[in-house]
Specification:
The structure is a single chain. This protein has 174 residues and is an alpha+beta fold. Helices cover 29% and strands 34% of the residues. It contains 5 helices and 9 strands, in the order E-H-H-E-H-E-E-E-H-E-H-E-E-E. Strands 1-3-4-5-6-9-7 form a 7-stranded mixed sheet, sandwiched between helices. A two-stranded antiparallel ribbon has the order 2-8. Strand 3 and strand 4 form a beta hairpin. It is globular.
């Protein structure tokens, strides 16, 4: 296995990021990995304009992981309400299950702690994603019990297939 290289996204990376994130979560391609949301949501996983705003916003970084010059994973790290926010975490479906996600998560936490000077990382996870939540718990995140509504009706974030989706906030001290 070749080494990963990390960089930060620019606006030129938007098309590749949209493709990676979509393939990791939606449609038949996502079923090759274990993080698929294909049974929960259709449509977009990321809106290019929202992504552009995240790239240019101060104290917001899109972390890219490459192997052999191919984009293989990404994550969004930003300051939000005085803590780190971790989102848009995507690993190419055919590369999942081999420890790559753990390496990218560790680098994202380092970025939040060292580059942004943040002491806590938070994320939102769809609360019916038990296997995914358990994966984060094994990496030190804890369920806060704080729930947020899913943005039903805003198709920039997908078309729900169920009426009971909501987010739960997970948190970890850095």
């Amino acid at each position: 296995m070749h080494a990963l290289t990390f960089s930060l996204a620019t606006e030129a990376d938007i098309p590749a990021l949209v493709e990676l994130v979509t393939s990791s979560y939606r449609g038949d391609a996502s079923r090759a990995g274990w993080t698929t949301e294909a049974d929960l949501l259709d449509g977009n996983r990321i809106d290019p304009e929202v992504l552009r705003e995240d790239i240019v916003r101060p104290r917001s970084r899109i972390l890219l992981a490459h192997r052999d010059d191919a984009l293989i994973a990404c994550a969004h790290v930003a300051e939000q309400d005085g803590a780190g926010y971790f989102g848009m975490f995507s690993v190419a479906p055919t590369a999942q299950g081999g420890g790559l996600g753990r390496i990218v998560l560790t680098e994202a936490e380092r970025l939040a702690r060292e580059d942004l000077g943040l002491a806590t990382m938070r994320m939102t996870v769809i609360d019916v994603r038990d296997e995914l939540i358990a994966w984060y718990e094994r990496r030190g995140y804890r369920r806060t019990g704080i729930k947020k509504p899913f943005p039903y009706g805003d198709e920039r974030f997908g078309i729900p297939k169920r009426p009971d989706l909501r987010f739960e906030i997970l948190e970890k001290p850095l």
